[in-house]
Amino acid sequence: MPVLGPLYSVCFARVRLRSHIKVKKLIGMCSSQRRRYSQEHLQKCYEDHRALWESKKLPENVNPRSVFACNELDLRDVSVYGFDYDYTLANYEPAVEHLIYELGKNVLVSKYRYPEEIKSLKYNREFAVRGLHYDIEHGLLMKLDQFQQIQQGSIYHGLTPVSQEQVLKTYGGRSLPLHYVEGHLRGDTKMAHLADLFSLPEMCLLSQVAQYFMDHNLQYHSVPLFNDVKAAIASIHPEMHRIVGRNISEYLIKDPDLVTFFQRLKENNKEIFIITNSPFYFVNAGLSYLLGEDWREFFDVVVASAKKPAFFTDSMRPFRELNEEIHTQTWGPVTQLEKGKIYLEGNLKRLQELKGWQGQEVLYFGDHPYSDLADVSLNHGWRTGAILWELDYEIQCLNSDDYKKMSGWLMILQSLIESSQDFEDEESRKMIEKWEEERDQLRKKTKELFNPHFGSVFRTHDNPTYFSRRLFRFADIYTSRLSNLNDYSINHTFYPRRGVLPHEYKSLFV
């Protein structure tokens, strides 16, 4: 048998290689002659691994129109479809991010008296990705994995990378305690999780202003800076709504297949509703552009200015009907939710009482894991779908030959290191350390294919990101756009991929 022990354990069943691995371990612990053979053996293993990988075909492309399942979902059980608006029904041009950034930046200068020079800052859309965490007290922007570990090379103070030594000095390790990361759940907010696409301009502005202060040796405190930027961005939404609403075709991306999606739902007698935090005039302008002037014919219930997530958790918020003639809410009680009328505020408990919608018959789509999906999934039994527009770009990166080649070799090399790490002689250790350096370079390069600063939204080097963990918990399915569901039957069942647990076979087909 050729010298392919580690390769065999990579590609087939490790359990069948126990005796061979034991032999290798003994080789590394014997005489100097054995040690020399061990080094040659390792080099041969490396060369054979490399040759075999280079002979393999690259994996097939991921279909960017796929719907991916985290949990089994049978659409035959779904009779009611619900939707958020922003970044769910409506996808925005990058111009919206630039607009939010510019408006927020101007508020910082005009209202909060930040230096005039800040007006010269320019939005960098390539800097951040969705799902990052911001340490409010220390002023650090970082990417965490599902175990709250900071991804190496993905933590910034302003626009300046933070060294591993500084990370250890600040936190005492690479992993952050759960109570520190999720303190907001107990009223002790130390970190902000920037989980929607509207937060990208906020992250960029926050980092750039901090960098400006550092470059100009200006003393500042990271907590007020965070609060000022957050307040500035929040304050500009009414103005942003007015500008976008008046120039809708410049800011919205029109999906020609979205009308077909809603037509299919109505043809199959599905009930449809929308719950959005945006004001009605803004939603009306957008959906008239996306679905046509008669868009309200598709929807059985329309709720605007819902103030999610309070809509899902606070049962003391009654529905108010919008008087469209005078553009204000009525004062009388709402005793039924009628098609063709517009409702404001409200709460989920009352919605379910008035419509009789319960549990797994409802499938609700949103883009935000917390404000859209968490409560309805965890507390009300609704089925949920996440719309993640950045999937298009992520899958484009996954389908590139560069990524396929590097990630494939990275996995094999990692397994080779794992299988050979118990050689203890100095020469063998030096060779394994050389492999580890190559692995670290591959990790860095694959990360930078997605984003040079923070990498993929969904993955760190080995683990799902913190954002992914929450997404997979709160969303039964996810996809890049609603119209991708047109490729599936209205009665389709989505099945999650059967993942291999750490203690199971790498492959059942030995």
UniProtKB/TrEMBL annotation:
Co-factor(s): Mg(2+)
> Where along this sequence does the record place binding of Mg(2+)?
84, 367
Q: How is the cofactor bound?
A: Binds 1 Mg(2+) ion per subunit.
Q: In terms of domain of life, where is this protein from?
A: Eukaryota
Is Metal-binding one of the keywords UniProt gives this record?
yes
What is the active site of this protein?
Answer: 84, 86
Question: What keywords are assigned to this protein?
Answer: Hydrolase, Magnesium, Metal-binding
| UniProt key word Amino-acid biosynthesis | no
Molecular-function annotations in GO: 5'-nucleotidase activity; metal ion binding
Q: Where does GMP bind?
A: 86
From the record, what ranges are coiled-coil? none
Q: Give the family from UniProt.
A: Belongs to the 5'(3')-deoxyribonucleotidase family.
Q: What is this protein called?
A: 5'-nucleotidase domain-containing protein 3
Source organism of the structure: Penaeus vannamei
Upper classification of the source organism reads:
Eukaryota, Metazoa, Ecdysozoa, Arthropoda, Crustacea
